[in-house]
Amino acid sequence: MAVAVLVAVGATAGLRAVLTHSPFSRTAATTAAAVFVGSERCRSCHRPESDAWRGSHHKAAMAEATAKTVLGSFADATIEYAGMTSRFFKRDGKYYVRTDGSDGRLADFEIRYTFGVYPLQQYLVELPNGGGRIQALPIAWDARSKAEGGQRWFHLNADERVTSTDELHWTRPSHNWNYMCADCHSTAVRKNYDAVADRFTTQWSEVSVGCEACHGPGSRHVSWATAGGGASRSDSTYGLVNLLNERRDVRWSVSSATGNAIRSHPRSSEREIQTCAQCHSRRAQIADGYTAGKPYYDYYRPALLESPLYYADGQQRGEVYEWGSFLQSKMYAHGVTCSDCHDPHGGGLRNASHDRPSGVCANCHLATKYETPEHQHHPAAAGVTCVSCHMPTTTYMTVDARRDHSLRIPRPELTTRLGTPNACSTCHSSRRADWAAQQVASWRNGDTVFRGHQRFADALTASERGESGAQALLRALVADTSQPAIARATAASDLASPDDRATLMAVATALDAPNPLLRLGAMRSLLMFPPARRAQLVAPLLSDSMRAVRIDAAGMHPGKAFVTDDSQRSALEQAANEFVASQRYDADRAEGRTRLGTYLAVQGDLAGAGSELLDAIKRDPFFIPAYANLADVYRAQGPAHDADAEQILRRGLSLGPQNAPLHYALGLTLVRLGQKKAAVAEFERATTLAPTDARFLYTYAVALYSAGNVNASLKMLERLLATDENNRDALGALASYLKEQGHPELATTYENRLRALELQDPR
Questions:
Q1: Per residue in 324-349, pLDDT tens?
Q2: Does the pTM of the predicted model rise above 0.85?
Q3: Long-range contact list for 481-485, CB < 8 A, 24+ apart?
């Protein structure tokens, strides 16, 4: 296969249990399955925390649309967009919007829920006859003050023209609450998608983010609290499912010599950080049933530092939230947790105020050293704070400025070399980056060598650009344990096929790393490996302790033919079942259907694969990978189906004309159909759109040579070697072609390079 396998709301009573006040025995409190009791049940004992939570964004994450929760103007307010005038109004005490539906026509839709509170509020609509689908409107209310430009309706895609035929239209999967939003805006969400009926019956225990979203279902804790003494009172967990006690007895001692704090003892677990990561990370959900306290990697697969989510130096670019950024920080490396800086109940910053926002930093960093012109290199009147330089903002959803949690040192010299942004330019927008770089160097007495924590930008940039030497830089980053694990995992994911021992060792080391991120990243590099080698490398991960790793291993495994013993066969079967279950969980998404269809094709079930891929296209015609993989299935059925492959690829290209893999796949199909000239044009288009893809470059070079364009073919192979100096296909082709063209001396150069690689090959 050309594409990897990896790539109406129900009543709340369905999950919520009513708790009686009768004491539970110690056995019941400790071993009985905990159930959700609701945040109001916590209030009687935890009033200060409850009061703080009531004023938090967590409490307002989602709510039924009422006069108390709706902030926007529904007094016949209108907004024009893409030739349509949408109107917000009230009728019979309910809130409505008249806007364009999936057919492009104006219709009235009831607002069922509010979504968020500040700096903007969105609104949710349940689509009539939509199979329980709840959609987020693209028109939001700016909740800021008028002085700040708020108190208005605005369109989230104001710079585009999104109509009902567009994949970003609010009625399409990109705006579906059940999949995209629900898990983070309510407590104990269960998606409950019925693939046969194509219907959701999504449920929650609490409409907003309540106490139990972080502490887990609370019935056993209430039992412990109401036991009135006895054995249950000695329960060291207090009946809590998720005991967030990692900061207990922890002290941060600020050194007068360095101005920085040291943790009294190292952080030995990730419980709190993973609890926050459920919602504060860019991730894919892989299984239903998460509750706080369960392992993050059993339910979620996080994104790595990849474009367009992040810049090459790890700064936020897309909407990635905080977790992936924070993992890059020196603070995380030194044991800081989320609640060291944030009050988890109210959501505010600890020891910070409007007049002194840097108060939170002063908890661990000596103010007399850092809140000074000598450190800030700006006069006090300039209003520079710690976060101005170390946590610059990126604005999402038009008005929502979010701070980068990688807490990095500004590096304008990277801007000059790599094009990454820097905090200096936020204020000094009229100045060039090299000016800022010179200023920073002058503060260090002319020293231009960076000695800070995050030193991976060059490697990831070289990989992204396909530069010569990129693979060596990636291997060095994977091996550098002083660098953030998420950066090393990203480097591992970009490693090319192991044509030399050093690359193979880097991949194997990452696959065996204690951190699941590294294991997940390394598996992504295995796609182009020979099946036998791939099976050998992923076999141990089929029994990994984390579900995300197991299912990716099952998806990457080439199949039963490469199993070596009964133990491995059993592990593969179990992991494969988990993989299939994960895709069935996401059967409402074209991505899930496509992954399952591709997996079935690898297993030889072409009929099942075709059915899943056709369903993927039916559910989301704009999901382009489904077309490429369906074309693969048609080609696997023999020459009689090549015309079907061409048809489905052209259909995909009509919706995604800039998709390089589709052009490449169409080129292969046209070769089989005997249309070689047209095939070469498609390969050329693929390499233009994806200029660093080794597979595209090699195939285009071979096609050029076959078409008689020898010089262009040789240049293309040299271009491939410039991005991957050890590419055996390119070396072998150059050696062969140069011999055929009467240049044996030049051919020998490439033969010798290829022979040297063969001698290094541990196979």
A1: 999 999 999 999 999 999 999 999 99
A2: yes
A3: 483/454, 483/455, 483/456, 484/314, 484/327, 484/328, 484/329, 484/332, 484/333, 484/453, 484/454, 484/456, 485/327, 485/513, 485/515, 485/517, 485/518
